[in-house]
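Hi D.,

Good news: the full-assembly prediction came through. Inputs first.
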Amino acid sequence: MRQYLIRRILQTIPIMLGVSVVIFFIVHSAPGDPYAYLFGPRTDLKVKEKLKEEMGLNAPLPVQYVRWLGQTVQGNLGYSIRTGKPVAQLLKERLGPTLLLTGTAFLISLMLSIPMGVISATKQYSWLDYVVTTVAFIGISLPSFFAALLAIYLFAVKWQIFPMNQITTPGQPFSMLDLIHHLILPATVLGLRDMAGLTRFTRSSLLEVLRQDYVRTARAKGLAERKVIYKHALRNALIPVVTLLGFGLPNLFSGTIVFETIFTWSGMGLLSFEAVVSRDYPVLMVVNIFFAFMVIVGNLIADILYAVVDPRIRYS
Amino acid sequence: MKRFMTILLATLLLVAAVIPASAARPDMRYPVTFNGHPVTFDAQPTVINGRTFVPFRAIFEKMGAEIQWDAGTQMITATRGNTTVKLTIGSSTAMVNGQARTMDAAPYIDKEFGRTLVPLRFVGEAFGATVNYDSATTAITIVDTTWPKRGGTLNFALWNAPDGQFNPIIWDDIYTAYVGGMIYDGLWRYDERYIPVPGLAEHWEWSENDTKLTVYLRKGVKFHDGTPLTAKDVIFTYKSIWHPKYYGPRNVGFDDVLGYEAYHTGATSDYADSQPLEGLYSTDDYTVVFKLKQPNAIFVLSQLPYGILDSSKYSKVPVADFGTAKDSYGKMPNGTGPFMMSEAVDGQYYVLKANPNFWGGAPYVDRVIWRVVSSDVAVGEMQLGKLDYVTFNAPDMDAYKDMAGVTTIEYPTTFHQMMGFNTRSGITTDKRVRQAINFAIDRPFIIDKLKGGHGFTQYTPVSPLSFGYSEDVEHYDRNLAKANQLLDDAGWKMGANGIRQKDGKELKLRLAYPGSGNMVRVATAPVVQQNLKEIGISVELEPYDFSTLSQKVFDEWDFDMYFIGWDPGSPDPDQTGVWDKEGAVAGGFNGSGWYTARSDELLAMGRQTADLEERMEIYAEWQRIWAEDAPGYIFYGENELIAYNLRLRNFKPGVQGHTWNVEEIWIDE
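Then the structure:
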């Protein structure tokens, strides 16, 4: 296992290098340049050219890439062209809000989807199952954009239970309560969206396990239905669910552009979106490579969890 | 006695030192302020037989009164709240809420401006304000502590997060400008008429054949931290813009300044300073001189609007770092404007608090909160009263029309939507093809149906809001017969498939346009395609994201026709850098590549004379040439739609900005 881990971790290095090459060339071959956004209509072309020269943007792409790699490896992530801030600082500012939102939503979806999936599977074709399946179906098909606006209309405008947007109330000293008050609406809507898929996954996985021989054996030897389901069936049914969660890890960090825009939740999603729109190369590079890294880490975690929950799996 | 002599001597020396400089400064006679806010007027206050007369309408409107004029009875009615004041020209009896009051003199009409002037003392009596006349400075101070209401918070929206660096010579996104514009001040500002009026400069004048501009700074202006603003700061700000290591958008159009080129290419220090240049120096702490190589009529308007930096702070920041993370004053700016930065949370909100020492009078409200808000939830925010005003698009009109406590306002802007033709290469180099296309476009349909009537007809790139706009040009009202004739003349014969042909080549044109963002503009593309199909032109639609479009149009010139929205952002008709040779370089904004010897000559002439009538003639001719040559087609000028909460008073959004008079806005609850 340890050997396997070391090998996997070492493997990430060439993968990350490959990813960074691909991202670098894609980002830089997109039309337009960051200075089209930075400068107004009347900007002197000479100034633009000089700036490009000094920023090293006129050098051939491979040269630029090597320069960029050298700096990044030394821990210098560069400066955002649009905001002038160090990219590392931007990451630090934006990761917190995103993790808070996606983390809370993740917990909400977990706490709802597994019980719902279990109920739905054990009471297959009952009215409860139909309700759960329908809710999950609506959750999957409702576009997040619409769901967010609907939630805002109902809970913030019509009933005025929650604030419409922002992370905290502007112009007021920070308070945990205020933060939570602002968090509930977006986190719940986001959680409900993710819950839908997870519920259906838990349901089908558990249904499959319930048809297995060892479940029949457990029932035959007279175990209580509760014990059969929670001790024998559920644990095995959750194996694919756990791996699914591993793959979902990158989403925790990437945030969601739609939710962050509508709820003014300035996180990673908005950061990457703003960087794309303004061709902010240094931010784009770091953010994308960070996301790619999280995908690799997520996969690794999923693989490890797989071995943990399923003793039959052995890596060597 | 000895001590007295010393003081006397010192005073004399001081006076002697001051005299030559202050002799040049023009006297500002009878400056009028209401609650500290300057009142501007065209007819000047005057003294007749020892009595001071002041313009009635300007002052009473500033005091919040609504004015009505009855030409038949020569009677003026001013109403504010429960108070009604009636005046009759030539009669010294005024009626205040039906009670007769005798004024110490009768109101009269100023012949030159057609304005009514009333005795100063009456101004105070009418609405119960305190009037002070300082005979030494001739300053007239009107103070009303009971009107209007003070205090409260204005809640404004930013549809996108500003860049978050509030350096006035660096920022270039409109959202940063919204917030920063309240923090920093320029030498002048627009007034209600969209005319530049004194800002940090009290007065400016041209001399030496319009090549020497003397700017007289307002005295006693302080930055938010208390540092006094002097000529040094103005020189420093402009030298920063001209510095070789300045990386920002403002260093354009200064070529006429003497010594600019040498400094711009020669300075070696990393820091800017206030040392004099040949074309930029001060004669005393409050007088700045710009010297130009040749007259430049648009110099003040287009080159001197930028916020003035505090040189005592910024001289310690390398110019290359302005507006970056190393510029701490970009984060917590120290300006001279009506509001000061109180709390900044990038991506979320900015809290500004009133500057009690603002030279233009302390703002009536305590705070302005600018919040980043998704425009998708704007209607809900307005409904709950959490935002005080929003800009909106026509489809939202229904939502705001019947909303309680909210009203809408619509006004024309200098922003227009146009189509440009490639005059460098391809089929559209033929003027007749361009003219034919113009004749085929159904402008009324686009304005009425697509734009919902929230736009206005404009025939040339000069804004109808400008004094220089001329309609005496070819209008290209829709005329398919003419369009067909022009194409026939150009040798494009109708083919069997409905597409014209010449020498075996079909008349096919590529239309590049922004495929997202402004949905009306996106919808205009298929309309143009349909219109041109009727005269046998096949149009290929090429929607792009904005970066790609600007690369194709401005850098690579790879298009036949393109759409763009354009805002000169000023009431001046000048087209330098847009429709001239200078703009026709790769990356320049003359994507069409159109200019002629005469058109460039006219633009140069227009810049070199300040005479309004002369300039009007020059630009009229320029517009005739532009329309005749048809390098572009203007679909419409854009109206701005604004919904605002009725609790706002004195809110006067216009082409000069939504909150240009923010210090005068007050909240009535």
